Amino acid sequence: MINGNISEFIKFDKTGKAVLYKEERFHVVLLNLPEGEELKPHISKTDVFCIVQKGEAEFILEGKSIIIKKGDLISFKAKEEHAVKARTDFSMLLMK
To answer: Hey, where are the domains in the chain?
Structure first.
C-alpha cells in the first residue's frame, strides 16, 4: 500500500517534524530544519536509525561532531545525547 510520497512532507518554512507512520512497536518521523536552525542537545527514549534525505548538517553525538549529508545513514542508542545543526536546508528520516 502506498500512503504518499516523502517529498510532500519536506518543507523548510520552519523547523518541523512530520509523523509518517506510527504504531505501538515503532514510528517513522521526518525532521525538517531550515538552514541555520538547530535541535538543542537531547536524548531519545529508544534506539534510532536515520537516513538523511536532503541537505547537510552537523550531527553531535555524545559530544563528538560529524558532518552528515544526503544519503548518509546514522544510528544511535537510547539515552545518548545528540543535537543537529543545519548547514543548509536539511531533512532526515528517523525510525525509532
So the answer is: 6-95
* Whether the Cβ atoms of residue 90 and residue 84 lie closer than 8 Å to each other: yes
* Domain covering 6-95 in this structure, CATH number: 2.60.120.10
Q: Which amino acid is at 8?
A: E
Q: What residues pair up with 48 in beta bridges, in sequence order?
A: 76
Would you state the pLDDT for residue 3?
73
In one-letter notation, the amino acid at residue 23 is E
Is the model's pTM score more than 0.70?
A: yes
Residue 1 has pLDDT above 80, yes or no: no
Grid cell digits, residue 66: 560529524
Instruction: Describe the chain by its helix, strand, coil percentages, rounded to 5.
Output: 5, 55, 40
Would you tell me how many other CB atoms lie within 10 Å of the CB of residue 13? Answer: 7
